[in-house]
Amino acid sequence: MITGIPQHIAIMMDGNGRWGKQKGLTRSQGHFAGSKTMENIIMDSLDIGINVLTLYAFSSENWKRPQKEVQYLMDLPAKFFKEKLPEFMEKNIRICVSGDIEKLPMHTKSAVQSAVKATENNDSLVVNFALNYGGRNEIIFAVKAIIGDIKESKLKINNINEELIDGFLYTSGLPDPDIIIRTGGEKRISNFLLWQSSKSELWFTDTYFPDFNKELLLQAINEVQERKSYQARL
Ligand code: IPE
Ligand code: IPE
Ligand code: MG
Q1: What is the pTM of this model?
Q2: DSSP-derived secondary structure for the chain
Q3: Which CATH number do you get for residue 214?
Q4: Which structural domain range is residue 22 located in?
């Protein structure tokens, strides 16, 4: 039984490439399967009553991958939103993006921006896509903006605190993640939510992302609840 639904779950959707390889398919076919799983997980998160779901879709390091794979990943958002936006509207889902979207190819950027715009007044689940996201880049971006505001006398050094820094991050306005899930067996943070993960519970599974499902999501939530009740008894 789940007691106390987490407000914000973030998922590092890892293992698509290995899933493809294991099935005798291409890495890109693995990414396609991952995008189908992502659709299910969004609807499952809505059913469960999670408020914010952050999905690590493309890291600032992922540009180093073969060009064909990068191109496939950059083509996915337009296809994804074309198909899913009507359902997101119907279900009142809001799309957000965290990352340096200025560096995305034009068609990727505009697909994401129009989904953000179309859903801006929706108020059920927030789905936050971490796209061209890097935790270190995010901090650099925030530091530059803060220094800019100090130089223009809009801000005083003494007013810099955690809340202020939160407001300069890509995730401004979103609560910190309660749980960070990484699929695919690796146990690394891979430049994900470096600032925001300060108090997050981490949960790992060997399951490749295309095989991730609602049962595993509920298992993660339950195990974290158990950890918390154990800590409370200490
Ligand atoms: C998906 O998994 C993560 C993305 C960058 C989209 P990977 O593509 O990293 O798959 P593996 O880890 O190589 O199996
Ligand atoms: C993390 O997975 C990024 C995403 C899930 C998008 P990677 O496969 O890119 O990370 P590393 O290379 O294992 O650190
Ligand atoms: Mg990987």
Answers
A1: 0.97
A2: ---S--SEEEEE---HHHHHHHTT--HHHHHHHHHHHHHHHHHHHHHHT-SEEEEEEEETTGGGS-HHHHHHHHHHHHHHHHHHHHHHHHTTPEEEEES-GGGS-HHHHHHHHHHHHHTTT--S-EEEEEEEE-HHHHHHHHHHHHHHHHHTTSS-GGG--HHHHHHHSTTTTSPPPSEEEE-SS----TT-STTGGGGPEEEE-SS-GGG--HHHHHHHHHHHHHHHHHHHH-
A3: 3.40.1180.10
A4: 8-134+176-228
Q: Is 47 noted as a catalytic residue in this protein?
A: no
Catalytic residue among 62, 137, 191, 213: 62
> Do the domain assignments include residue 157?
no
Note whether residue 79 is domain-resident: yes
Number of domains in the chain: 1
Residue 11: nearest ligand to its CA? 2
Cα 14 to ligand 1 centroid, rounded to whole Å: 5
- The pLDDT tens digits for 173-224 are 999 999 999 999 999 999 999 999 999 999 999 999 999 999 999 999 999 9
